[in-house]
């Protein structure tokens, strides 16, 4: 039997040169959570463009002055209103009515909404009532409030308060329902009291929804303010607009509408400021 020698096969030398490692590129952070970016100039630019188009259209005759006055004429009317002192007279009266009525409606609405969200028997008793009151057009109730409270300030306060109350209730108990139940169970597992869970978990978790509801409620309050001031009011933005409309004075009419728009922007900015203060924990 002949010896068989096994040849050891050596691997052929590699002809490829080693490649250097690619440079490590940082991964872009994508966890912003859809946080909005601050670009306030965009909103101002949109307003300026719209006013410029309206000014150009009315000056060139593309838009009839009988349907839309020139923005420059409206601005001149606002300046005259300010110089005469009537601007502050109308705005101060309207602001007092808005603040009193909206404060009453929103505060009671938040309280009732929290009770509905936290107590089952209150929910069972009041949710059907709120559902029945919510779709009623509040402006249609103005004659009834005049009969009940008179034509003076009380009827205006009542209309604004009632119009603010129902959307605030719905937004508040909806926000309480949307609080993460895992956080509540976690608090219960740490033996937190009921009051501590409400104060430290439920209220902070529901606050974004409550503030969003307040935006809608205050917008409704401004609409009802104008409607209330068009009935038996000597001063106020609504009374000013009604007088301008009866005289077909478009410059004064649009000046009143501009005041309402500015008021709405200021109210929205105020809610935004409150959101930034109370919701800083969201990051």
UniProtKB/TrEMBL annotation:
Its membrane topology is listed as:
Multi-pass membrane protein
UniProt family annotation: Belongs to the binding-protein-dependent transport system permease family.
Q: Name one Pfam family in it.
A: BPD_transp_1
* InterPro entries on file: MetI-like, MetI-like_sf
Q: Where is this region: Disordered?
A: 1-27
**Keyword annotations for this protein?**
Cell membrane, Membrane, Transmembrane, Transmembrane helix, Transport
Biased segments, Polar residues type: 1-19
Question: Transport as a keyword?
Answer: yes
Residues annotated as domain ABC transmembrane type-1: 91-275
Q: Which residues form the signal peptide?
A: none
What subcellular locations does the record give?
Cell membrane
- This chain's protein is named ABC transporter permease protein
Q: Which CDD domains does the record cross-reference, listed alphabetically? A: TM_PBP2
Q: Which residues cross the membrane?
A: 38-57, 98-122, 129-151, 157-176, 209-233, 253-274
Q: Which PROSITE patterns match?
A: ABC_TM1
């Amino acid at each position: 039997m002949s010896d068989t020698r096994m040849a050891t096969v050596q691997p052929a030398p590699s002809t490829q040169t080693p490649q250097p490692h690619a440079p490590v590129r940082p991964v872009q952070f994508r966890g912003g959570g859809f946080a909005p970016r601050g670009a306030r100039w965009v909103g101002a630019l949109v307003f300026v463009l719209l006013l410029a188009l309206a000014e150009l259209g009315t000056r060139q005759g593309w838009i009839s002055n009988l349907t839309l006055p020139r923005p420059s004429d409206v601005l001149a009317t606002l300046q005259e209103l300010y110089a005469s002192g009537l601007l502050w007279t109308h705005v101060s009266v309207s602001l007092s009515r808005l603040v009193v009525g909206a404060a009453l409606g929103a505060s009671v609405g938040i309280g009732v909404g929290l009770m509905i969200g936290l107590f089952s028997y209150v929910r069972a008793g009041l949710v059907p009532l709120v559902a029945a009151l919510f779709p009623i057009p509040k402006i249609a109730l103005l004659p009834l409030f005049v009969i009940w409270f008179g034509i003076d300030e009380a009827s205006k306060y009542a209309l604004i308060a009632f119009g603010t109350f129902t959307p605030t209730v719905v937004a508040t108990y909806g926000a309480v329902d949307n609080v993460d139940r895992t956080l509540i169970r976690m608090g219960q597992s740490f033996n937190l009291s009921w009051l501590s869970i409400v104060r430290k978990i439920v209220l902070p978790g529901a606050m974004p929804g409550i503030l969003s509801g307040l935006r809608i409620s205050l917008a409704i309050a401004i609409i009802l303010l104008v409607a209330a001031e068009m009935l038996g009011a000597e001063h106020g933005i609504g009374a000013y607009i009604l007088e301008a409309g009866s005289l077909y004075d478009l410059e004064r009419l649009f000046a009143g509408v501009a005041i309402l728009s500015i008021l709405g922007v200021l109210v929205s900015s105020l809610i935004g400021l409150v959101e930034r203060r109370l919701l800083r924990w969201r990051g």
